[in-house]
Amino acid sequence: MKPCLVPLVFIVLFLSASCKRATPGPDYQATKVVTADSAAVVSPHPLATQVGLGVLKKGGNAIDAAVAVQFALAVVYPRAGNIGGGGFMVIRTKDGQAAALDYREKAPLAADRDMYLDSLGNVIDGLSTMGHLAAGVPGTVAGLFEAHKKYGRIRDMKELVQPAIELAERGFRISPTEARRLNGFQEGFRKYNEEPNPFIKDSFQLGDLLVQKRLAETLKQIRDKGAAGFYEGPVAEAIIAEIQSGNGLITMEDLHKYEAKWREPVIGQYDGYRIISMPPSSSGGIALLQMLKMVAPYPLNEYGFHSTRAVHLMVEAERRAYADRAEHLGDSDFYDVPVDSMLSDAYLQARMASFDAAHATVSDSILAGNFKLLKESFETTHTSVVDAEGNAVSVTTTLNSNYGCKVWVDGAGFFLNNEMDDFSAKPGVPNQFGLVGAEANSIRPEKRMLSSMTPTIVEKEGKLFMVLGAPGGSTIITAVFQVFINVAEFGMGLEEAVNAGRFHHQWLPDAILIEDNAFPDSTKQALEAMGHSFNTVGRMAVIKAIVRLPDGRLQGVGDPRNPDDDAGGY
Ligand code: DON
């Protein structure tokens, strides 16, 4: 339905029923803030949020809703929603049990630590980001079935896949942002794919109907055969045929061997708050807790929001956490990650011994690389869900770049990830997010590449308080850190905390990345006088969060940084 054909009465009813509306879509609109008595869902797309709310209203719990939202995002948010990628899910049940599910992609069995290097040992530009060789073994479908098996309430998983099938088969009208992205990536689509292809077109317009028949068939295989409908049979054969057509490495054995893994969540205390977050193969939880513990001894609330002292302290904590990330973090199945030591109070106190309240610490320049300033816009999905009983899910999944490696599995209708770029292709050489790494994150067959995704749940005085996470590559961890600090230390409501300008330091490059106009020029000048320097970017990570209000209701907040972010509840 094109906007001009929407009956006026519908528009009036729709607008009057909504609270805060952002950019209008064709026949749906994104709500940025919702207050709900019982349950809430915040996702990167209104149609996916609707699917999640529908599952909750039918008696599903937060895990069921999160699973259905992921399948829906694979259809309505093709730039990052996926079945060709991977992700992480953090769960807190109504009785306080915490769990973390790792369904990150894995390096194929045939992968090699030097697979992206030329004969002189230099990283070959683009090989880990574009095309078939950039794809890791997808984990999403295995992860969603595993989460549902352990925690789902709606017994028949078919009900959670069906809404996505309908969206793919019937089609949906694309948002302005999706139209822009689709137009922006045509060159890559044409390079790696053949026509006809629903994603190849001279010009996409907002409101175009995107029908994905092949994806619908794939989702039906998954609906009818479970995870085997993806990792075996015709869908698996289509993936392998696609991979072989472009000299990729993934084999049938890789698909058969893929398993999602339950991990011990990383948990830490910050004042009266208990933080539950994602352990390796993500760096998110450990780095977040390190930063929180490093700033905890200082009176941030007295310093004040975006004061020079507060920004300086937080930047110095970020710098130290990202330096540790580069050296010590990788897939704990392959590398002995010293989690306890990295989170010990004594270690973090020692780490801050070099903190100088008046001067920037100079990052060690030994591993300095050629920082490429986030040349692609951010895309990943995060969904936060709280159900009426108080079960909570924080789930982040990704293809890595927009539309992953740009390869669309011809016989199965979805994009493959380019997650291999999250490995350290060569020690000290930055990936597309400017992150450097070392042995801990080197490529090994079947190893998971290190992530920054930080799906997080926060308790306050023993009760569920906040669910949050974001897309945004390396800036995810600092965004989660800052939004939480905005609430916990600077007394902000969730909307203000999410909307506030952000800054980010990742050790290397040795500069603070800030959003345009994130803070006053006076703060910037004072920080420069202390030895800090700046890079500016339009926007960083895009938070989707839910908070429990003092009166017991829930507030869901989508980030204005993504016009499609949508909060729903009832
Ligand atoms: O796992 C990671 O850290 C990245 N692959 C996430 C990518 C992302 O958030 C994309 N947005 N820029």
Helices and strands, with pairings:
Elements: H1 8-17, E1 21-24, E2 29-31, E3 33-36, E4 40-43, H2 46-57, H3 62-76, E5 86-92, E6 98-103, H4 140-151, H5 158-170, E7 172-173, H6 176-184, H7 186-192, E8 209-210, H8 213-225, H9 228-231, H10 233-245, H11 252-257, E9 261-263, E10 266-270, E11 273-277, H12 284-295, H13 300-303, H14 308-328, H15 339-343, H16 345-351, E12 381-386, E13 392-398, E14 456-460, E15 463-469, H17 475-488, H18 494-499, E16 503-504, E17 512-515, H19 521-529, E18 534-537, E19 544-548, E20 554-557, E21 566-569
Parallel strand pairs: 17-18
Antiparallel strand pairs: 1-2, 3-20, 4-12, 4-21, 5-6, 5-13, 6-9, 7-8, 10-11, 11-14, 12-13, 14-15, 15-19, 16-17, 19-20
Helix pairs in contact: 2-3, 3-4, 3-5, 5-8, 12-14, 12-17
Any overview of this molecule?
It is built from 19 helices and 21 strands. It has 570 residues and is of the alpha+beta class. Helix 3 (62-76) packs antiparallel against helix 4 (140-151), helix 5 (158-170) packs antiparallel against helix 8 and helix 12 (284-295) packs antiparallel against helix 14 (308-328). It starts with 7 loop residues before the first helix and ends with a strand. Residues 1-24 and 365-374 have low confidence and may be disordered. 6-diazenyl-5-OXO-L-norleucine binds at residues 378-380, 398, 400, 419, 422, 451-453, 471-473, 476.
Counting copies of identical and different chains, the oligomeric state is single chain
Q: First CA to last CA: what distance?
A: 26 Å
Estimated structural class:
alpha+beta
How much of the sequence lies in strands comes to 15-25%
Strand order of the largest sheet: 3-20-19-15-14-11-10
Q: What sort of overall outline do the alpha carbons produce when their principal axes are compared?
A: globular
Work out the count of structural domains: 2
Estimate percent helicity. Answer: 25-40%
Mean pLDDT: 93
Largest sheet: 7 strands, antiparallel
Q: What's the total count of β strands?
A: 21
Low-confidence region ranges? 1-24, 365-374
Ligand inventory reads: 6-diazenyl-5-OXO-L-norleucine
| Number of contiguous helices | 19
Measured on Cα atoms, how large is the radius of gyration?
22 Å
